[in-house]
Amino acid sequence: MIRRKKGLIIVISAPSGAGKTSLCKRLLQTSPLFYYSVSFTTRPPRKNEIEGVDYYFVSREEFQKMIERGEFVEWAEVHGHMYGTSAKLIDEAIKAKKEVVLEVDVKGGTEIKRRYPDSVLIFLLPPSWEELEKRLRNRMTESDKEIKQRLARAKKEVEYAPYYDYLVINDDINKALEKLLAIIEAERCRMKRFPTEELKNFISNE
Amino acid sequence: MIRRKKGLIIVISAPSGAGKTSLCKRLLQTSPLFYYSVSFTTRPPRKNEIEGVDYYFVSREEFQKMIERGEFVEWAEVHGHMYGTSAKLIDEAIKAKKEVVLEVDVKGGTEIKRRYPDSVLIFLLPPSWEELEKRLRNRMTESDKEIKQRLARAKKEVEYAPYYDYLVINDDINKALEKLLAIIEAERCRMKRFPTEELKNFISNE
Asked: What pLDDT was estimated at residue A205?
């Protein structure tokens, strides 16, 4: 039987309001094969946040050393705190044939693609701009100023969409989940993921 | 809502014994969106064969004219008869957003890819060479000499597999069908199939 070499790296990006977090949660529940890559951060843990589940909490010094050692695939500073994705955790997971799921912004997505050209970049969008705005306003938790900032940021993020491999329109969460699962199943069948020696062995076993 | 431009062109190739014909039949039954591209041939119709269903039956002169007018994406002469795939039928079907399914050999597959770079090439294999041989022998209808010829031909065909986009191992027909459907669903979501203007419109509708 011809087998794949490694697990997949699945990157999901979306402007806020596209429903990324709920969809990722649903995706992870479908199979124990999925591995959600936990980020490192210098932000102090909030109440209820668990080390190794929500984040790996590290000091700024430690984070800086990790940057210097090239341990992050991508990292960013947001509101004075550092956030980073560990390359080591990804490498271990794909070697163990797990499918790594990463929820990152468009900048992080393109950086992951540069380091892992075989990663699968999926861009999620709501069915229309009006719907995106509506979903953001319905959250109520945010001020008008914050909503405007998020919309401006969303606009910038959509400009990166053409660099992604797939576009999933999140009109209905169940349909969007089905599309995600189809993309992952299809990517498992991509010829480039099978070792060429195995195809050679296949015919030489005659 | 952002929409795809055209239907897909799905090319399925396999050595005989891989179960291609049964799988294609099952695939076509899943949705009226699929369009099975009927070939043209100079071979006289057999009893029960229907014009436009099994083949379009044409004279050798007509076939020759079609070649000269560049109407075939691919054609071949087998046992003194000509067989060809019409580009016009494919073009009409994808414009109508149908998903065209083509069952062709590896030579035909690579020719279709050259003319339609966005076509989806799927290679089907049985789980092992032993299984391929077993399936061919179980058909009983063929002599030992014919089986040897088919095995030799199969070996040549598998050498083309790396040029295909996907590899589906047909261990179980239901699982193989699920994989085919996942590949088709995923290909519908490929970013390159969405017009860039539509993405621009999406953000300019702000």
From this structure: 59
